[in-house]
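ARCHIVE CARD
Drawer: 12
Card no.: 0347
Subject: one protein chain, sequence and derived structure
Cross-reference: see card 0346
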Amino acid sequence: MPAAFHQEDEFRARLDAGLWWKIFRRALHLKRYLVPLLISAVGIAVCDATYVQITRWVIDGVARDGADAPFTLYIAASFGLTLAFAVAVWVLIETAGNIAHRLAHDIRRDCFDRLLSMELAFFDTRPAGWLIARLTADCNRLANVLAWGSLDFTWGLSYLVLVAISLLLMNWRLGLLVLAVVPLLALISVYFQRKMLLSAREVRRVNSQITAAFNESIQGVRTTKSLVREQANLAEFQHLSTGMFSAAVLNARQNALYFPLVTTLGTLGAGLALWRGGYLVENAELSLGTLVAFINFAIQFFHPINQLALKLAELQSAQAAGERVLGLLAAEPAIKDTPVVLAAVAHASDSAAQSKFEIRKSKISPLAPDGLPGAIDRIEFRAVSFRYATGPTVLRDFHLRVQRGDTVALVGASGGGKSTLVSLLCRFYEPSSGQILVNGRDYRERPLTWYQSQFGVVLQTPHLFQGTIRDNIRYGRLDATDAEVEAAARLVNADEFIRRLDHGYDTPVGEGGNRLSTGQRQLVSFARALLANPQVFVMDEATSSIDTETERLIQRGLETMFAGRIAFVIAHRLSTIRRASRILVIDHGRIAEAGTHDELLRQRGHYYQLYTGQFHHEREAAVLASADR
């Protein structure tokens, strides 16, 4: 578990009305739920205020008329008001729930869509747990705060207005006395606003780190156990957990101090009403029913203020989540189509399918979506240099030209720039300087989705998704038939092991493919890449972690896979690349040696040393294995 995690950006400490308006605008398309929600909230406020007035009428009526008071009218009014209140509450809960769930769905979908559009460099600086927290906890939090917060704010403000009007109409002098407490309440709210927001933001920041720690610990559990790192990881996690505890306790203390202050002020207002109102009743300047209504209103006047203060605190607490989610939604991918490319695609589009960058996978499209030839005949690296955002230069003035039908093998020490080279080729990153040309044109001038769809990439550690073997192979081309899926598996010699399984192609692979061996997962990933019928194959250490038998199976299918295509192969086992049309020894971002297998052996340079050393090592391992048998 790494000690350092992605840190939150600095945000303004005060409540940002502009930010919440941006979030609220995302709910405006739900007006068929939003309008009934607001109407029901106002209706509940009217019912609450009317209950107090009915109580006033009953007390004054009994005091004035005794047994002749119109009790039937009072009962009917109370029953009708209760029925209206029940209907309003039902509408309120129904609509608020709909808004919360639909808004969470929309925000989560938009966030995920934005994540899929981001370049790899975006994920290099953000742990998976941090991103998961944005798509789960933060999205749900914002949706709930917005839905139920809109309800409480509408009800609270409506009730405050009704109560204030009622107080002033019944006795404006006594009403002003009760309302005099409001400025003090406003001062306390402003003071606590900054304090609670800062502590709530710290809670969310540490919570993101804990989520990331959970995720990385679970994903790396095998490494942790193999290195006996349990206690060290526990100590690091304990440090994070202690920070979370301290921040949460501070936030709880601030809330525990704030809300009793609000309640105390409410009691003070009621006390003032009782003191002054009692004097007025004694002097027959105020009826008993009006005094009771005044006391009830004085107490209830501060209940919506208390609720508004609570929702304000929740807004402050959720603002950090809102800033992060909106920041994610506003993030612009560094690698995307330029306006010139988009204009070319729009001009060349003959159908809606073309305008969405859709291509036929069964054969190479004669034209790409931008109207240029769809065949990739040559790729050229011209004076390419590259450095990561927080690292040294990896490639320096790199030159390479590859034609259709060429298989280029990349060898060399770890960290030499081989994987960076193919990442640039696939346009996962873009050169810091120089150009990568496709058919003589800078690949940044071609549609990104079309270009990347022409690649079949097989990594050292293949990732399989939940589902069956058939589903995972079909992931290479979702419209492929079962026959095409099985044909791709046969070409890479995966069909034999698949049919030996109890459920064949319908065998579930488990999480990450954990029900299959490493070699079986790799064969499935080869079939998936082949099914996409790419024009360029990229194999990044694809055979380095599999057994020799599986490697032989793969080698049989490589010639078929590479025929008529451009192929880049990063190889740890040099015996697998002897038939490559060109072998490049990459050292510190430059080509140290280049040639065929035989040519490089004759040069007796770095490749010769690598190959002979590995050959002797493999031969010794084979002898030892034979001796053990």
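Annotation on reverse: Strands lie at 378-387, 393-403, 407-411, 433-438, 441-442, 455-459, 536-540, 566-570, 582-587, 590-595. The longest helix spans residues 230-282.
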